[in-house]
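Okay, is this right?
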Amino acid sequence: ARKSRENLTTNRQALEKEVRGNAWDHIHRNKRSIAINLQKPEGQAIFHRLVKDADVFFGSFRLGVYQRLGADYETLSKINPRLIYATISGYGVGNSFTEWPGNERNAQGMSGVSALMTGQDGEPADMLCQPVDAYSAALAVVSIQSALFARERTGRGQKVDIALVEGGTAFVNANVPDYLRNKKVRKRGFPSIGNLRCKDGKYLSNAAFAQAHFWAPFCDAVGLAEMRDTVPSGNEEMIRKVRAHMLSKTRDEWLAVIPREISVVPMLEFDEVLEGPYANERGMVLELDHPLEGKVRQLKSPFRLSDTPPTFRRFAPVLGEHTAEVLQSIGYSENEIGELEAAGVVRAQNFLR
């Protein structure tokens, strides 16, 4: 009994640590979590019972894993022909890379994203975010929604196969026509004035040079009227002159004289993003009451719908927090759930109760 109490205390501490981390996890809020061991036949039986009435299955394993776990498309579509079966993998189905491990870094490399990211030395630079993961997830969501809409007409589900590499190439889509039409390969290390350093070390995000009708008023505003008739794209000497000139004033001093109509805005660091006027006016950050953490702040959903806006219902769950609740809803008794947990088929203990 003493050993059991010690284990319970240890497990509770681990769970509370996990909860504290998830208190900040806006990606998984409003979800429930059940933990099933799909390597056991009993676990697969539970999973198949859940699939029977599900609308969508989504997974992000390597593609060969699903069959071993009884979660492949052929198996699940027989259980539920209306199921939308969606996967995101590194390379997608039916190619020589299908079974290779793939992640954000690999996808950036194989999709063309890395080739477009350049450091000051002209070498490919790391991105401090995961654009390919995020864009591929958005592609999956749109595909799932399209499949659900099609199901309303046909009554049938279908398979959605999203590859990170394809997602990355689609993400840099503006560069694709230059190659497909003109065989143009953009070179790394090209000089740019897209981000302009100012006297105080802060930057302006400058799109004026990309459109001729913005360039002339930009030059007039900053005191470079002699350049107004020549956009300095690719001209290293002119670019160096613009960069040097912009070091004469602070970012805010420049913003005070540059007309807002010509696509020049402050380049914000993250503290400025999340604490600044735009985030405040849009209500981008929520302040919430967490049962263990107290006041926590999370990013609000970017989906803005007038009639059915997203709402906050629950914090991100810990692993298996809702296993008992979900299993009871599909007919399992408390004794059966306890036996399944003792056998290592599910994780169902909720130490927060």
About this structure: The radius of gyration is 26 Å. The chain has 16 helices and ten strands.
